[in-house]
## 1
Amino acid sequence: MAHISIKNLTVEFKVYGSSSRSLKNQILSQATGGRIAENADDAVTVKALDNVSLEINDGDRIGLVGHNGAGKSTLLRTLAGIYKPTEGSIEIEGTVGTLIDPSAGMDPEATGIENVYLRGYILGMCRHEIDEKVDEIAEFTELGDFLHLPVKTYSAGMFSRLGFAISTAISPEILLIDEGVGTGDNKFIQKISARIKSYFDRASIVVIATHDDEILKSIGATNVLFEHGANISQVK
Amino acid sequence: MLKVIGEKKLLESPKKLISAENLPQMAASDLVDGLKNYQLWWVFAAHDIKQRFRRSLLGPFWLTLSMGIFVGSLGFIMSQLFNQEIKVFTPYLAIGIIFWALLTSIIMEGCTSFITAEGYIKNVPMPLSAHFYQVVARNIIIWAHNMVIYLVVFILFIHSFSVYNLLFIPGFLLFLANAIWIGLMAAILSARYRDIPQVITSFIQVVFFVTPIFWSVTNFPKRPAFVDWNPCYHLLEIVRAPLLGQAPNNLSWLAALGILCVGLPITLYLYRRAYARIPYWV
């Protein structure tokens, strides 16, 4: 059974200005007894998540909503293990699949097929799993012989179609998605929405951060509203 | 649902605890998980090389050829200039250059390993250490190509095996372990302080001249102390002597082991402290 339990999660990080990153300023600030140090450590601490608690059970579809910078993406990244908690804890049961950057790992100089492998490894698949799926992915993209050409020769639509096909080939128990999935090719819309539906249906838990109400409605998500890094309400 | 995933996932779902308290353990297991993900970084390391030489006739053997020309011509010129025997000097020079290149490129590319992987570090859940392992793997692939030069030199000038050749295996492992801790330390510090890559690059240029690569310590019985205190000399010695079929120099082995024992714990400590912050630094 997939399950996520978030308890009193706080994530803070320091954002450094260009000056404090340099070693010179740190050394100077030691030597000058703090006079230059005024702007040497101009790090600002950002509290991206503030004491968030949330229980997500098997079968749940969670939509994270809120303004830009409210903490939605930070929560997704923390669930994915990218950002680390400053306080509190997350317990995760189940395999996790993440879709934050839909083209991570892809290389415009490499061919379509090579990119299926590169992107596949980044999604956490092993060679054997990609071997099994490569035909299905190739077929879905309808790119045909283009798959043997470098991706830099593709149009933007073809590129996103390829990335989409690979990214939706995984079947994790928990799916973490930032800003939705999809691609702008009209002719393709139906085929894509069917694939997205099956992609979501295979997962026991879906957590999605988006501004798009349509997606949230279509999967029947429970919306969790974020403001200033804290979850303030849940709306079914 | 389970059918799609495949048999191994039919087992119980994996459990994971991410909390502020167990970050030190997570940092330690990140280094191990990174190693377990060898398929990932090996593929990307090989892809880096493939991509660099795509559509070129010789492919990665351009690396071998350019270094081969360098070693060959320099071996000839220097042996004439300094009146040394070419069949003694060229193998010495070739091995020195090959391993110097491996050591310094792991360190210098290590500096930028986290910085250039920013897009992955911020968006893809994978062990942080894998980005550094990728750099090491890439340089080992390049080194393997360069070792063809040693093969040629062996056939031309050395052409006899010795028992001491066997010491190359432990020597190389010790050499690599040292290169790895220095490189990882450089990677961590560079992510935080962006001056470090520049500092290291300038520093390595200086060390190059202090390190016996073009010259041998045997030519200088009375030498300044900084020659023997240079760790790079000892690191090169533990791989060069075995490949030349020479008896081991105890001091160099002890020195290499010593710096590993000091440096590795420091790097592990730094990694533990920096682990949670690197995603914000890059």
## 2
Amino acid sequence: MTVQLTERPAGARTRASLADSRAAGAAGENAIHAICLLALILPLLLLCVLVLQAFLDGRDRLTWDFITGLPSRKAEAAGILPALLGSAYLMLLTAAIAIPIGIGAAIYLEEYTQPSRFASFIEVNISNLAGVPSIIYGLLGLEVFVRIMGMGRSLLAGACTLALMLLPMVIMASREALRSVSWSYREACYALGSDHWRMICKVILPMSLPGILTGIILSLARAIGETAPIITIGALAYVSFLPDSVNSSFTALPIQVFNWISNPKAAFHVNAAAGIIVLLTIMLLLNGLAIFLRAIYQRKAGQ
Amino acid sequence: MIQRMIIAAAFVAALAGAAGCKGGKQKQAVVRLDGSSTVFLISQAVAEDFEKQNSQWKVTIGVSGTGGGFKKFCAGETDVQNASRPIKKSEAEACAAAGIEYIELPVAFDGLAVVVNPRNTWAEHITTAELKKIWEPAAQGKVMRWSHVRPDWPDKEIHLYGPGVDSGTYDYFTEAIVHKAAASRGDFTSSEDDNVLVQGIASDEGAIGFFGLAYFEENRDKLKLLPVDDGSGKGPVAPSVETVMKSEYQPLSRPLFIYVNKASLDRPEVKAFMNFYIAHAMALSAEVGYIPLPDAAYRLTAERLNRKTTGSLFLGGKSLVGVRIQDLLANK
């Protein structure tokens, strides 16, 4: 799915490299063309095989009862509703926490700091944080949110942990988007007598929104598939009720899928495949939403 | 545009806050379980039926593993602990330090199956001494071919498969075979997911591995079971419901436990759940692929629960390898 979204910059780069190779000769161009095509097809093919496999394995179990059912020891009776809603709430809360903080940090770093040793120190560390394994965030969340802040093994603790994990990605994507707004707009704003915040609010942010949104939604799509951090902070494997508050204990889709895959009975592996399809569908919808929003705001920004 | 987004974000935050307050006030009666993923399957079945009959009460189960679960149990965060091995001395001390008294209840048996690839034509059974020779720490780099184990077996590479070193299954196997818990060679393929071991052994002619009997039962067509000879003179015994229940499949039959916090038992939902658990453990453990304890053992277990007999039968260096669970319970 990420392939679709990176299509535009990748395409731009391909065109640029093709232009270079044209100068180098037709043979070189053909080779580059083939290599780039292969680079596109290979991941797509792999993805297709995985999706197809999951779909073939799981389609028989993919019924309305499966989606609205509660967990059970009988594979045919087991459903994913608590896991599905758990994941959905987790995503909403994570977004509510990560978006304001992430965009705020990006605006500060991009618009308000002067280049300094301190600023570049922060910059390097944000990039480093994006590469920290997710389990580390889980352990941090367990200690800070669950124990010290006393949130317990709740949805809120899970969302805070995931938000923390996403922040570096959200900040970096937002900064990239803010930076891409042409300098002439800023100069135009100042020329019209606008102050700094007004310029950010009315011009820079709306123009960079497509990029920011894409970054946020892509990182959310990654978060929804994360298992390690939420297992660490104490998501459960069996919950037969739906979360009714941010303090509720919860389970999530990847945990339910993992749980079914490790069951000895083959019938549960079918459930796992069906669960994977549901998870993939949600990710596809999220990514679709990203493209849709980007298209809308790009049109607006273009006007 | 931006203002609208900020307002929307504030609205979501306010909504979340309001929901949080609501949840704080009306607390639903919940029985909290955590621990072993092996025992999870039984506890899940019990919880499902319990909730059907008692809709006012809810049950939640986590799978932090036996060790991780005990940490939460001894911190008072859970009411019931699923354990695929008895409590360790260090864990008992942690519980004691936190003032948590617990009641230890065996609920079922699990047999550990020793399996090879179906294309393995040479091995028909194996002795515990040979298993020790294969798995002990000193075997690393030395016992690398089947002929090293038994001279009339072929000169082919032997590949080892076993559960992850954090699992209760690994702890039990090493204690039973190597005679020291968690001591084994390190050069084997390990996975927390036993289905991965099944796949590995099924596609590797030189493979030998072990895992819970339920995983063999579900994959009979892909694997070959090796009966185990414990050297007591009764010859090789294959694991089955009967041989495990009658304690004939030794030493690789292990009891599975739940531990309940004594203080939690004062809450009606926990008390009802525990009574329900012991009353239905026999039928439900069989249904999810484990082997029930003998009748007599469940009677003694129920008694233990009613009398709130605290403490563990296995502390003080007593091993559970090769003991009959009902004798152990009766001795108390």
